[in-house]
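Recap from last week: sequence in, structure out.
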Amino acid sequence: MRPTRSRRFGITLIEVLAAIFIMGVGLLALLTLFPLGALSMARAVQDDRAAAIAADAASLRDAGSELLMRTRQFVLISAIRGYADTKAAAGLRQEYENLGVIAANLDRRLQELRTQLPNLDPRVQALFEVLLAQIHTIKSLLAAIADLLELLEQGA
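Predicted structure tokens:
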């Protein structure tokens, strides 16, 4: 008669190694998704920033148009009266200076966005340059109008 070996229940070393290998392959597959997700998230953040900048630029345009209409009224009323109201000039000057600050902030944000997108298509890069040039022109015109209104405010 043969001696009977008692059968032990448990997990062998080979089974543990096989489980570790399978889990490692699964984790490796998951880890490859993280950079793809991070790239997608970075692109979404850039798109979101670009959309916010575009919305702010449209807001600047609307505020500037409205302010120009009020400035036109101020000039017409001043021409009819033969003198300029210094308080109204001071209020308009302050609004032009505020728009200048908004334009400078928009300029800074556009510069930041451009540096975050290093491999831009040359056509898109050219559009960035045109936008930045327009913002610089707008800032200088806003400053010039504010200076003229300051002269009126001083009664010169």
